[in-house]
Amino acid sequence: MRPRLFKILTSLLLFLSVSAFPQKANGEIPQIPDSLRKKIENENAVFSIQEARELRNAIRGDSADAADAIETPIIPKDSLFGTHVNPLIVGTEVLGLNAFVWAWDYWVLDKSYAHTGPSYWMRNFREGWEWDHNHWAINFYGHPYQGSMYYATARAGGYGFYGSMAFAALGSSTWEMFCETEYPAPNDLISTTVAGSMFGEVLYRLSRASYNGSKVPWYRHLLAFALEPAGYAQRRVFGNRDFYTGWTPIELTVATGVGSRFGSDYRFGGEDADELDAEWNDRHGMMAVSLEYGRPYTRVRRPFDYFTLNFFGEGGLEGKVLQMDIMGKLVNRGIHGRGHWLDFSVNLDYDTFYGDLATVSTLSLGGAMDIALWLTPNLRFRVMNQVYWIMLGSADMGYDDIIQEFHPDYKPDMDSYQYNSGVKYSLMIETLYKRWRIYNKTTIDAMKTIEGTTAEYGVSGWDFLLLNNTALEYRLFSWLDLGHRLDTYVKMAAYSSEYAEPMSRRIHAFSWYLNFRLLGS
């Protein structure tokens, strides 16, 4: 760091420490730890994420003014911040990525869909787009990840969230039109572009947090590349065109445990009212990963300045249940101070539920109200309401056995789902008391089949998914919690069909677990 710039930053930090942060709860002027003060004096020092967080907390306190001040981008000396890689170059890279993946599928994997050519291209222009029903995991995990590569190429080239999304749309549309023998699919375009941009921004920021200095150890470079190879390569070739994100607080927890499940898979209504298809009653292992980037009350200047990523999985002899949810704020307005906050936001949410009980996904846009209050020095109450419009949803039919009775040639697999639109509602309530945490979150999806999107032998109608998680945790150490949770999953369907009667499935699962706090407090 240049001596002049170093003096400016040091003076700014000292000024903020004295004048901008008097609102700490104890009324004292925050002090920077000696170890960090020595690092500040070393112009070649590299700050870890944890050290950056400690420095931020030391000088910031808990005031709104402090939060706004510290969010000023930290511009590295090797940055080309504010400049962009030529859009023609980025567009060429996106198309080159398509060419590489197509060549791999054609020459190495010899995939039948890769044997495309001018006759298929002309057909696509002539006959247009059709909904496809490829394997569910390909459409709702594979396509978003491919979209994240398009997105990161532009994002690391200096473009913002929406500009990078436009390049993701370019990559997706050209792939659909020219790189497959299948008809171009609107669901793939939406999933690759919008969900791909969400995946891309999350991975980009985590990669950037790992690679948050001009001189970092090799293993952090490796982690940055593994998280987002396209973005990392772009930065290395064309230079850093953004700020370092290592000052953003990140909380990461990993839970692991065991428990038992009970529930049933059955149909109700009509002559099948008493028919029990299957019952779950077994032991299971569970794992959960929860990541929070930023603070819930942080002013969002750029989309995804605040986001959460949650993964939960459990498996036993009777079957598995997997869930992944990404929520990122696009804009927000609110107030906060001394640990209280009231925040209104517009969010993007991508949620998938995958397992033997049901296979459901939702890509949603909506709003949230988040309020937290310290009722006493030891008691905090928080409630968050979220309401979303489901832009693109999917749900498995769940009638494979009945369809097979009417159509013997039907082969059930993970392609037996239809596309939906609808609404999603989520209510989260959390209470903190000393070392105790009580938490409950309920999510309800109500989805109606989009006309013309059913698979072969498909049926259309309404799908409902209810997920409820109740947890009680006790803080054993600053880095470890002991917890107990009850999960409830309910899938209901009501389709317009002569043989698909109303159906319901439900499972309850109890789990004991240890929650390891790997980052954050």
SSE blueprint and pairings:
Elements: H1 3-20, H2 34-41, H3 49-60, H4 64-70, H5 87-108, H6 118-127, H7 136-155, H8 161-178, H9 186-210, H10 218-227, H11 229-238, E1 250-267, E2 276-293, E3 307-316, E4 320-337, E5 340-355, E6 359-376, E7 379-396, H12 400-406, E8 417-433, E9 436-449, E10 461-477, E11 480-495, E12 503-519
Antiparallel strand pairs: 1-2, 1-12, 2-3, 3-4, 4-5, 5-6, 6-7, 7-8, 8-9, 9-10, 10-11, 11-12
Molecular structure report:
With 521 residues, the protein is α+β, with helices and mostly antiparallel strands. Helix content is 32%, strand content 38%. It is built from 12 helices and 12 strands. The protein has a 12-stranded antiparallel beta barrel with strand order 1-2-3-4-5-6-7-8-9-10-11-12. Helix 7 crosses helix 8 and helix 10 crosses helix 11 (229-238). The longest helix is centred in the middle third of the chain and has 25 residues, at 186-210.
| Strand proportion | 35-45%
Summed up, the helix count is 12
Adjacency order of strands in the biggest sheet? 1-2-3-4-5-6-7-8-9-10-11-12
Mean pLDDT over the full residue set: 84
Number of strands: 12
